[in-house]
């Protein structure tokens, strides 16, 4: 990976993150003396971050719809920083493991412009008793007629999951987002079998929903972090079958580091 020339050394860093490891990562980078531009998709995610004099918070997708970044917008942002003599020393991609479009766009743009880029990697948990699926089409043949299946995979792939498990009785746990709710209803889910909840908490609401709906199987993403851990625990406690959508591969050529190693690699800004 190519770094900045010595005369372009900078204490400026661009962090693209959500509500998982993002807040802790931002705090650690600020403590190391970095000036951090932080990009989050929505207002709800922004609330997870504390104000700081060296933190510039940007809310909204980068030049496109959610998970559909505009590469020209990325290039424009990098060029604007360079023209101002404030080029980013690092870009840190801490977006969700399934937010593949933003990660791929960052990889292409940064490689073309020789912009140093790091990717925060989440550990892969052992599969254990879960079933690992390559995608929603793998649901075909798994679900029994009338099986009570909870879909906890986000709104974008709900339609595919319903299409490939027509014999199941579908339920969904979604973020409280109007667009996601519209997708769930368009996929054929009954309103009384859709729950819109913010992430976080101790899982008591999800546990109660599973009991109320008499859920037999849960489909979630192999995303690592707290969400996957929650569904693993609830499935174990309530005797539900866990089905995991396989995590997509990371973009080629981008160093992928766990949190501690990433912070060590970035180091301090030199302004402390």
**Biggest β-sheet strands, sense, barrel:** 6 strands, parallel
Approximate shape: elongated
The secondary-structure element order is EHEHEHEHEEEHEHEHEHEEH
- Mean pLDDT, to the nearest integer, reads 90
Which radius of gyration do the C-alpha atoms yield? 20 Å
Continuous helix count: 9
The CATH superfamily of the largest domain is identified as NAD(P)-binding Rossmann-like Domain
What is the rounded distance between the termini?
25 Å
Q: Regions with pLDDT < 50 over 5+ consecutive residues?
A: 1-8
The CATH class of the largest domain: Alpha Beta
Provide a quick synopsis of the model.
This protein is an alpha/beta fold. It is 32% helix and 20% strand.
Topology, element by element:
Blueprint lengths: L11 E6 L4 H10 L3 E6 L2 H4 L8 E5 L11 H13 L6 E5 L5 H14 L3 E4 L10 E3 L14 E5 L5 H6 L5 E6 L3 H9 L7 E3 L7 H10 L3 E5 L3 H14 L2 E5 L10 E2 L1 H8 L6
Parallel strand pairs: 1-2, 1-4, 2-3, 4-5, 5-12, 6-11, 7-8, 7-10, 8-9, 10-11
Task: Give a description of the structure.
The protein is an alpha/beta fold and 272 residues long. It folds into two domains: 6-121 and 249-266, Rossmann fold, CATH 3.40.50.720; 131-245, Rossmann fold (3-Layer(aba) Sandwich), CATH 3.40.50. It has helices at residues 22-31, 43-46, 71-83, 100-113, 158-163, 178-186, 204-213, 225-238, 259-266; strands spanning 12-17, 35-40, 55-59, 90-94, 117-120, 131-133, 148-152, 169-174, 194-196, 217-221, 241-245, 256-257. The strands form two sheets. A six-stranded parallel beta sheet has the order 3-2-1-4-5-12, with helices on both faces. The chain has a six-stranded parallel beta sheet with strand order 6-11-10-7-8-9, with helices on both faces. Helix 4 (100-113) links the parallel strand 4 (90-94) and strand 5. It starts with 11 loop residues before the first strand and ends in a 6-residue tail after the last helix. The model is unreliable at 1-8 (pLDDT under 50).
């Amino acid at each position: 990976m190519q770094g900045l020339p010595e005369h372009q050394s900078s204490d400026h860093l661009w962090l693209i993150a959500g509500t998982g490891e993002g807040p802790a990562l931002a705090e650690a980078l600020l403590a190391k003396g970095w000036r951090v531009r932080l990009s989050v998709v929505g207002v709800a995610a922004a609330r997870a971050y504390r104000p700081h004099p060296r933190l510039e918070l940007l809310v909204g997708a980068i030049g496109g719809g959610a998970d559909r970044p505009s590469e020209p917008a990325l290039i424009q942002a990098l060029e604007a920083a360079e023209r101002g003599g404030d080029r980013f020393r690092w870009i840190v991609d801490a977006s969700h493991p399934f937010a593949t479009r933003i990660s791929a766009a960052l990889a292409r743009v940064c490689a073309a412009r020789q912009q140093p880029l790091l990717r925060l990697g989440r550990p892969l948990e052992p599969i254990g008793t879960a079933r690992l699926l390559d995608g929603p089409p793998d649901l075909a043949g798994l679900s029994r007629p009338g099986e009570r299946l909870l879909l906890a995979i986000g709104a974008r792939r709900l339609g595919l999951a319903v299409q490939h498990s027509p014999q199941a009785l579908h339920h969904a746990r979604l973020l409280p987002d109007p667009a996601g709710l519209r997708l769930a209803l368009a996929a054929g889910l009954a309103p009384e079998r859709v729950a819109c909840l913010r992430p976080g908490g101790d899982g008591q609401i999800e546990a109660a929903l599973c009991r109320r709906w008499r859920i037999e199987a849960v489909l979630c993403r192999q995303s690592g972090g707290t969400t996957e851990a929650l569904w693993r625990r609830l499935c174990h406690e309530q005797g539900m079958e866990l089905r995991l959508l396989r995590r997509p591969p990371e973009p080629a050529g981008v160093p992928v580091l766990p949190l501690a190693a990433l912070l060590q690699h970035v180091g301090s800004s030199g302004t402390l």
